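task queued by scheduler; priority normal; single chain, no ligands, no partner chains; default sampling; output format set to structure tokens
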Amino acid sequence: MVTIENNCFSIPQICESGQCFRLDAVSEDTYELLAGSRYLRIKIRGNPEETAGGEENASAHTHACGETILYCTQEEYETFWKEYFDLTVSYSDYIDQIDRDDDYLTGAAAFGSGIRILRQDTWEMIITFILSQQNNIPRIKGLIRTLGERYGERRETPDGRIYYTFPRAEKLSQATEEELRELKLGYRSKYICQTAKMIAGGEIDLDALKEMEYTEARTELMRLSGIGGKVADCICLFALHHMDAFPVDTHIKKVLERHYPDGFPFERYKGCAGVMQQYIFYYDLKCR
């Protein structure tokens, strides 16, 4: 068991930030997370409303509110979860870079100050964000769960409950388009079949992707079936951790048009533009 102060770290906010679809609340203060083949139970100590965010002032991120308990060994935390949650990085420093004359972004960062950019599995993010196209969060979660139950491996949690790992590319490459359509994946079925075959066959090297610069990785990802610029940016940000990736969906597009008609100041936020994107996305999603 590992305890972490909730200083710029909020599991409820991360859960609703649109970057992770296998993190779920099972009660008011307890969450379950699946990452690849790993399972993690998480408990929140502190006021859930405060932990989830607030607009009181721009310096709200400097005040820790309660604790997060990760039910894992210290070794597993140090070797996996610490990096997964990006806990070696000071997100307070990111927030301190925000232009205090930018009322919108200042408010968005104060509201979503507990969000961190997770370091998720590249293959999992490729399939996840193909599924995310023209979809909503509950349905995306349901489709991922269905894929796991059909093509993943059956595992047990420490207390004996069943869960399924995310399907490996080799396994999913054997699925037919018809099988996936039966699972209600719709037109995305074709993209997933083709993408799984390309990766299982070595046409795209996932390990090589990790070594590429942002623009090169983005271009390489767009070779995969069903992946355009926005989806490639999501994978670059939420898997490859390219912090200059800035996915633009309908939420972000409207905000940019309304608050940044002359363009978003990317130069100011070089190296953390993706963090700002998450603050904006979450703020617009929860407050519009």
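post-processing summary
- The first helix runs from residue 11 to 15.
- Confidence is low (pLDDT under 50) at residues 48-64.
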